[in-house]
Design goal:
Elements: E1 8-14, H1 20-33, E2 39-42, E3 56-57, H2 58-61, H3 64-71, H4 75-87, H5 90-100, E4 106-110, H6 115-119, H7 122-132, E5 137-144, H8 151-168, E6 172-177, H9 185-192, H10 194-208, H11 216-232, E7 236-239, H12 248-301, H13 305-318, H14 324-341, E8 347-348, E9 354-355
Parallel strand pairs: 1-4, 1-5, 2-3, 2-4, 5-6, 6-7
Antiparallel strand pairs: 8-9
Bound molecules: guanosine-5'-triphosphate (GTP) and magnesium ion (MG).
Length: 358
């Protein structure tokens, strides 16, 4: 199926309380008014009540409170373990999502409140990578705008966003939420004009610590804001209000742009990696086959089952990149082949088959 026929998957990530779930509810109702209802997956096992109906809900599969009890864990450990358990079934989930990806335009994913549980766990990476390798996927990073007006907080939040971008490598969208309370104009200005951010940062520091000179912190802040300046280039940012519904058309325009980036950059890179891996596998297979043929011709001349097996094992052990499954297959084939040629050596099994001595 061509990529064009597939839905865009939007993974909604953000700090606790930034408004992910409320935003999802708003996106859902907006898409319903547009007559293009989305397919929704809830990955937050700890959410008490969802303000929308999820098509797939992690809470239907795992009860995180029960997980906490059974594994004797705290709330975060419980959420993480619940997510891990769910991930073991993710192939089934992906099957459902893939099926629906041809009939809807958008697939929306809500993630756990504790951002690090999703962004820094193996499960989060497995889920994101599995979806991204199956359909166009973008990350919507939700920011609590009223809580990020302080320059240092803003920078910390942006550094976090930057680390997620670095980790997922997926097209990225900054979503400044709660614009009904605080406009995101200041953020856009800081992102556009790096010097205006540095001035704000310095002013705030002088206000808070008038005694402090230009020490280590100042130079660290300057270096980090330089890093962020690079990060902002080619980054999409939109302001929305999950409560009033402001910014919905802009949000979906930005998602469409991000999808183009997926098709232009992410997908070709992914295809290249897959082709490279297949190529490596094929080469490895050919090498194994030629080694097998060589071994067989040697063994035909001087057969000793025990030394033959030992030699094989040594070879297997010496090759670090081997795929274990494949090697075992081939070693067994070799071993049995010898067995059929060397009747007379070894013992007789219950069915009369003669097996070589180990
Ligand atoms: N004023 C205003 N409040 C909002 C907006 N979006 C969310 N909220 C409020 O922010 C709080 C947190 O919202 P949630 O949607 O639960 O945030 P969340 O990121 O899903 O939270 P966790 O999943 O617990 O991390 C709630 O009280 C919402 O009513 C918004 O656009 N404007
Ligand atoms: Mg939530």
């Amino acid at each position: 199926m061509s990529e064009q026929e597939k839905a865009t998957c939007v993974v909604v990530i953000g700090m606790a309380g930034s408004g992910k779930t409320t935003l999802l509810q708003r996106l859902n109702s907006y898409l319903h008014t547009q007559k293009t209802p989305p397919y929704i997956v809830n990955l937050d096992p700890a959410v008490a009540k969802l303000p929308f109906t999820a098509n797939i809900d992690i809470r239907d599969t795992v009860d995180y409170k029960e997980v906490m009890k059974q594994y004797n864990l705290g709330p975060n450990g419980g959420i993480l373990t619940a997510l891990n358990l769910f991930t073991t079934k993710f192939d089934q989930v992906l099957g459902y999502i893939e099926k629906r990806s041809t009939t809807v335009d958008h697939i929306l994913l809500d993630t756990p409140g504790q951002i690090e549980i999703f962004t820094w766990s193996a499960s989060g990476a497995i889920i994101t990578d599995a979806i991204a390798s199956s359909m166009p996927t973008v990350v919507a990073y939700v920011i609590d705008t009223p809580r990020t007006t302080a320059p240092a907080t803003f920078m910390s939040n942006m550094l976090y966003a930057c680390s997620i971008l670095y980790k997922t490598k997926l097209p990225f969208l900054l979503v400044f939420n709660k614009t009904d309370v605080q406009s995101h104009a200041f953020a856009l200005e800081w992102m556009r004009d790096f010097e205006s951010f540095q001035v704000a940062l310095m002013q705030k520091r002088e206000e808070d610590n008038p005694e402090e000179g230009s020490g280590y912190m100042s130079s660290l802040m300057n270096s980090m804001s330089l890093v962020l300046d690079e990060f902002y280039k080619n980054l999409r940012a939109v302001g929305v209000s999950a409560v009033t519904g402001d910014g919905m058309p802009e949000f979906f325009e930005a998602v469409a742009e991000a999808r183009k980036e997926y098709e232009a950059d992410y997908r070709p890179e992914l295809d290249r990696l897959i082709a490279e891996r297949d190529d490596k596998k094929e080469k490895h297979k050919q090498e194994q086959l030629s080694r097998l043929v060589k071994d067989m011709s040697v063994n035909e001349r001087t057969f000793d089952p025990s030394s033959s097996r030992q030699a094989d094992e040594e070879e297997v052990g010496s090759d670090e990149d081997e795929d274990e499954g494949e090697i075992i297959d081939k070693t067994d084939a070799h071993f049995l082949d010898i067995a059929s040629r060397q009747q007379g050596k070894g013992s007789t099994g219950a069915d009369g088959t003669r097996w070589p001595q180990p």
